[in-house]
Amino acid sequence: MPIILLVIILGIVEGVTEYLPVSSTGHLILATELLGYDADKWALFNIAIQPGAILAILVLYWKTFRDVLIGLWKREPSAFAFVRNLLVAFIPAVAIGLAIGDSIELLLGNAMVVAVALILGGFAILVVEKLAKPTDRGGVANVTLGHSIGIGLIQCLAMIPGVSRSGATILGAMAMGVDRKTAAEFSFFLAVPTLSGATALQLYKHGSTMEPGMGSWILLGSLVSFVVAVVVVKAFVSIIQRYGFAPFAWYRIIAGSAALIWLAAR
């Protein structure tokens, strides 16, 4: 397969899965393996194309970010609460990532870990969907400080490939009483500092090892992921408000089971 086609496919996978509770990292690892490439060698690429997905959130929610900036200038309490909640939710990922990041990287090419995590995560979603009773409503700024800290801690589970950063944060928020729409938007906004930090760290640590031409591949992959993510995020909010997260749970269980069978048969 031509490298450019692989780059486009991985960009599509990133754009489709980054904000869905299905694990973008897990899908990128499985897609790379399925297409016959070494997942370890493409691990840096898979992380480095995340800026495309980040840009999608900045574009789709530009009015929200604009209003927060204006609110900070005017010293509005809601704007400060918005920033505070995202900052305290971001800090645990920074601390744990710096502390055990090298150990986590060893899992980034392990397709078996991904398959098992997909299945377990699917069942976790079904349980939370059944038991969650939303009490906090009204946007990210209205989420309590305690819940924001809890969401940040739960996000760290997504360092295990296959768990899903968006799934962990959304379902963790719902388990603490945050309504579906607010939980999803909290996850979207939290992705901006989290993915930016992860990308910057990986490029700093491994940028010198990039193969010739990978910079161009990363730009193309980021562009593809941006376009796809813009479409997917819009649809995702409508789907969860109408059908909940159960469709994604069953998808995870089926995809994880299929991956286990495929890996065992190789």
Automatic annotation (TrEMBL):
Its EC number is 3.6.1.27. It comes from the Bacteria. It catalyses: di-trans,octa-cis-undecaprenyl diphosphate + H2O = di-trans,octa-cis-undecaprenyl phosphate + phosphate + H(+). The keyword ATP-binding does not apply. Keywords: Antibiotic resistance, Cell membrane, Cell shape, Cell wall biogenesis/degradation, Hydrolase, Membrane, Peptidoglycan synthesis, Transmembrane, Transmembrane helix. It is found in: Cell membrane. The keyword DNA damage does not apply. GO terms for molecular function: undecaprenyl-diphosphatase activity. It is an enzyme of class 3 (hydrolase). This is Undecaprenyl-diphosphatase.
